[in-house]
Write a structure and sequence with these properties.
2 helices; 3-stranded antiparallel β-sheet; about 80 residues; alpha+beta; single chain; about 20% strand
Length: about 80
């Protein structure tokens, strides 16, 4: 996995939702889990073969690290 220079590997992120993506065998056959919260909840995924990504957190509400993360993520999408 690539990390941005001078970007922390762990940082606080705003989470304000009722829906939960749970880890299970079916999910992990098709998707790689890219990030998980302290509780183990899935927060970001990428399809193993297709250019599909999903996030379950709010980087835009999480200060500078969140905005930088979102800008980097958007830069990866063709």
């Amino acid at each position: 996995m690539r990390f941005l220079p001078d970007f922390p590997r762990h940082f606080p992120m705003s989470e304000s939702h009722e829906e939960i993506v749970a880890r299970d065998e079916a999910l992990e056959k098709e998707f790689l889990v890219l990030a998980a919260g302290d509780s183990g909840r899935v927060e970001a995924v990428r399809h193993r073969d297709l250019p599909f990504y999903g996030v379950q957190f709010h980087p835009e509400r999480s200060g500078d690290p969140g905005r930088r993360l979102l800008a980097n993520f958007l830069g990866l999408i063709p």
